[in-house]
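Blackboard transcription, Thursday session:
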Amino acid sequence: MKRHQITIVDIANKLNLSKSTVSRVLTGHPSVSEKTRKAVLELAEKMDYQRNMLSISLLNQKSNTIGIIVPEFMSSYFPQVIIGAQEIAAQEGYNTIICHSNENYETEVANTKLMLANQVDGVLVSITKETRNFDHLKVFERKGIPIVFFNRVCEDMSVPKVVVDDYEGAFRAVEHLIKRKKKRIAHLAGPDSLPISVKRLRGYRDALKKYEIPIDEELIIPYDLTLAKVKIYVNHLLQLDNPPDAIFAINDPTAIEAIKIIRKKGLRVPEDMAVVGFSNDYVSELIDPPLTTVSQPVKEMGSTAARLLIDQINREVSEWKSIIRVLKTELIVRKSS
Amino acid sequence: MKRHQITIVDIANKLNLSKSTVSRVLTGHPSVSEKTRKAVLELAEKMDYQRNMLSISLLNQKSNTIGIIVPEFMSSYFPQVIIGAQEIAAQEGYNTIICHSNENYETEVANTKLMLANQVDGVLVSITKETRNFDHLKVFERKGIPIVFFNRVCEDMSVPKVVVDDYEGAFRAVEHLIKRKKKRIAHLAGPDSLPISVKRLRGYRDALKKYEIPIDEELIIPYDLTLAKVKIYVNHLLQLDNPPDAIFAINDPTAIEAIKIIRKKGLRVPEDMAVVGFSNDYVSELIDPPLTTVSQPVKEMGSTAARLLIDQINREVSEWKSIIRVLKTELIVRKSS
DNA sequence: CCATTTTACGGGAACATTCCCAATGTTGTT
DNA sequence: AACAACATTGGGAATGTTCCCGTAAAATGG
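(Written on the board underneath:)
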């Protein structure tokens, strides 16, 4: 049994009208008599009529849909960004398609194809830690489909970006540790491919420089954000001849994992080893000890990015190109430091 | 400037072919010569051609898209369900469109409209705590669009459902508290509108009955899952003439909030007040003290639901109707009890 | 070399909707 | 009564794709 969808033609036939007239009623066009308008609206309601967006989108060459591609979905970070973005999108009559690439480059490429095939009017993207080739994203540029990066950006594409002041945040965090009299501060850094890693590392270095603390390259460990590896690196740090007395971690999950391992070794946080994270995840204030961290306006990041994207969709301009919105971070001092 | 999308007609014209032939190549139809096949594929690649799913969906009366409606997005619970569902969906060539209703009935209704307008082939739904009228969901039934409930189900619709053994899980949790010599066990319950609340409450009652512990209605507090209210209720419990020595909470966020408040009062967990949650959120093992809780196979819930839905979409049957998949829970004992 | 089969391709309808243009009917004005 | 102006409706193209049907050319068989 092939189920038949209720269309405006069905309504038109039942009322001996043309589809044009029915369409006019449904789109709110003025030139239609009150009598037919009422009849159409009533029947539409009764028949559970729902306009078919597919055909409308096809006709208008506009789907009123934006795509969001995020690298992961486990921590509270990206879901919250999405909430912020969806709020604005919904307000502006845009629909959202969400994909997570699972930190996998191939999946990310597949996701962009899917977005294109589904005729999104624009995309919000935060890349995976593996992404080094950006051809799949440049397709959007070539096709004139607006794209906005957030958090994990691609630096050599001149499109709008929304980030936080990673350098500043990292600087403050490390400065805070120094003021707590910590002398050997290690940094569990992110992969070099991500600008956030690079910037936070630079913040770390400059803070040490400012307070004339020698930088020990042994204490800087870039890693691939696979939580399982944290154990290896933390143990490595603890077994150094001259072990660190503090760790500044690239993000909160890393910091939390580090605390777990440090405590399992019988050491105290923060007395033996202070730990500071980045992002202020939902969990961070709940753990023991509560984590000192650099908070970011997460929801705002989503809404700012969405706003930027929709502005770009509506007016067609190119001066937008190189806009970079930098949101403020804030150091939140808790018991872990 | 109106941007022109690359279509099969463009490719056809460039190669002096008909759109039919180009379409045949792109869909992998056999009856086309090797020479033209190669030419078409090459040009398509060069022109960044992407098939327009809108037109295909319109033509096929099938969008290959499923909708997922969840009540919230903050805790790790629903994101993980979504991951499980998306995995299966992607595998089967289905696309996902996700909406969160923000625990708000009107938003949920709006979301269903959006799903319908976008011609989803099926929907996965977990209702809000407010939802008492199900007309908006029955529309799917009337239109013959498969629907599967998960976690928060609507009991008076005979469609497939995926749940966990809430009764069993709650029973075990309370039994565990009893074995820990707790005599007065309170229950921070969910709203009556949700079957999960009702079932967990029943498990609570039956466990007490089995061990012949009198049920004190004063210790059963149904609440609306607004975390801010937990403070009021916990304080209320603590100020009773005969206060409880344990709390069984409807979910982990509630339990965690309760612990925070109890400790702020200077009481010890679990000595003065044991606390048990439900769901085993990502956070639960990280907090202090680690939370005893009933773990659910979250990702599996998503994948099972998606599987059920897609089966329903593919074969058109009605014996599916009343399938209920009950997934197993497991009591995880940690330090909070 | 002619008849028949096979191979490769083109033409056109269909999907649901909107919007422009034309057509009909109705009212008002002189 | 004739004509203009306006209100209301209908017809048809267009959006991008697939698939059925038809047809020409090439290949095969005797």
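Lecturer's comment: The longest strand of chain B covers residues 65-70.
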